[in-house]
Prior knowledge:
Helix content: 40-55%
InterPro entries: 4pyrrol_Mease, 4pyrrol_Methylase_sf, 4pyrrole_Mease_sub1, 4pyrrole_Mease_sub2, rRNA_ssu_MeTfrase_I, RsmI_HTH, SAM_MeTrfase_RsmI_CS
Subcellular location: Cytoplasm
Bound molecules: S-adenosylmethionine
Structural class: alpha/beta
Enzyme class: transferase
Oligomer: single chain
Catalytic activity: cytidine(1402) in 16S rRNA + S-adenosyl-L-methionine = 2'-O-methylcytidine(1402) in 16S rRNA + S-adenosyl-L-homocysteine + H(+)
CATH class of the largest domain: Alpha Beta
Low-confidence stretches: none
Main location: cytoplasm
Amino acid sequence: MNQNSSVAASILQDAAQQSYPVSALYVLATPIGNVCDITLRGLHVLAIADAVACEDTRNTSQLLQRYGLSKQLLATHEHNEREAAAKIIERLQAGQRVALVSDAGTPAISDPGARVVDAVRAAGFQVIALPGASAAVTALSASGLTDARFHFVGFLPAKTRQRETALQELVALQAALVFYEAPHRIVETVQSMLQVFGPARQVVLARELTKLFEHIHRCPLGEAVAWLEQDANRQRGEFVVLLEGAQPVEGEDAEGERVLRILLEELPVKQAAALAAQITGQKKNALYERALQIRQGAQEDGDA
Ligand code: SAM
């Protein structure tokens, strides 16, 4: 046994010595790509669980096989979460340990799981979290974005109009924004972001994290579509998209900026500023100047 494997064995032993109560649900994060990104505690709980509730039984049985495990699997997906929760509760009543996993990453994060956890808690049973990989946090940690806060959005609506309306609501937020996106929609989503946020904001396209073709690209939004279109491979795989948050704008608060941007979608500058002043109670002149800047920025984007 080399030094590394003896360290791993002794930590696995530590994991085994902790207490893992029966009649408990274990919410267990699994890898988002690289099969080695399971925690030792997660592995131990998979080994001692009486059953594993999972999104897709084929995926999870393959994952378990990689770790040399075979378990009873309970299909628990977005279409049967309530019924699955009832079956899980029966097992907890019988004194079992049940692990809850999704296809990849952390359950209940843009994945099924929250309803099961809610029902198990309501039935009075213990829920124990086993933390691990999540694509959102993985992307943020390697992005270099320096925003002090982040706001998790997950998947945006598929239709352009609804997507852009959802994005409008985020324009003034002073926090890095975190999105999940599928490869076939990545270009149109980034186009919508450009439309709503303008070309200057930094975007991070984090693709295939922890996998063979992992790539993290950061650039101004104005350059992102061209970058994606330069090579078809850049549009393949799974994506986390991050946008830097709004910078504080001197002399006006975030609410004024948000209201102004919504009104400018439909109204001329003067009218939008007057209405925004009425709605927010802020100074009309300051809002008017800001409205001119926003409109001018939008025109420059159109000309570019
Ligand atoms: N529960 C998962 C988590 O904790 O991250 C997310 C599940 S959600 C259904 C799947 C989406 O997460 C993908 O469409 C993609 O946007 C993102 N994702 C998952 N794995 C990824 C990876 N390895 N690289 C980049 N994005 C990933």
